[in-house]
Amino acid sequence: MNKLVFAASAVAGGLVFFVSIVLFVVGVAQFNADSTPDQPWFPVVVWGLLFALLFWIDRNWDIGLRIPDGKPWGLIATFAVLSMLASHCLLVLEGAYHGITREFEAAPEGVSGFFALVYWVGIVVAMSTASESAFRGIMQSRLMPLVGVWPAIMIVTIANTLAHRWDGLAERAVGVFAILVAWGYLRHISGSLTPAILTHIAAIFIWDLILWNWGPWDHAAMGMGSLVTTTLIGLAALAGAVYVAKRI
After folding, report:
1. Is the CB of residue 172 less than 8 Å from the CB of residue 95?
2. Using CA atoms, how far apart are residues 174 and 151, in angstroms rounded to an integer?
3. pTM attached to this predicted model
4. What is Dmax (Cα atoms) for the chain?
5. Which terminal Cβ of the chain has fewer Cβ within 10 Å, N or C?
6. Which residues contact 180 (CB under 8 A, 6 or more apart)?
């Protein structure tokens, strides 16, 4: 019974933290866009509060911000890259199956180009950090000693998947789930939350840049050659990630 209570508390605590931070970030960013659309100051506010809060939480409950010594960081970084490549290939194939079109999500209307750039960076860093801290930090760190590594990763991944926006989630749920499993395992093998945060930020930046440069991306228009190539790249990356993970 105690384990169940502690596990439920970990899940609830992570969700409350995540929702609270998301509402705060979105609210402050929108207020900034409405009040001073040429002067993007909101990252200073949201980053300052978020990182101060995270350092305080980590100091009191150890959610994994510290980077341990003696880890094979080259192999861990390789796993992060390969697992992201494999899971994003799956995301692309899933999009092609459902015939969806993806495009870059722009900043609020009426803001300057400089504001839009700062908005993008500010939101990506804040949301990625908040997500990892809530799910792989607060939630997974508490669950692993209670239920074991893989049950904890699965519980956290399900919760994190359902915490995404529900519009269009059914058409990307499998790919999102795979990405989140990879980040959960990255959190485990590295012994730190920091690699997952950095990987999350990098993955969003790269994906957004692809959509910004070549989007809107109509996945249904992908030819058979592109689909086969994507599949082969994904399988090769998955095999490489599994091989590297076994060596860590």
Report:
1. yes
2. 18
3. 0.94
4. 55
5. N
6. 135, 156, 157, 160, 161
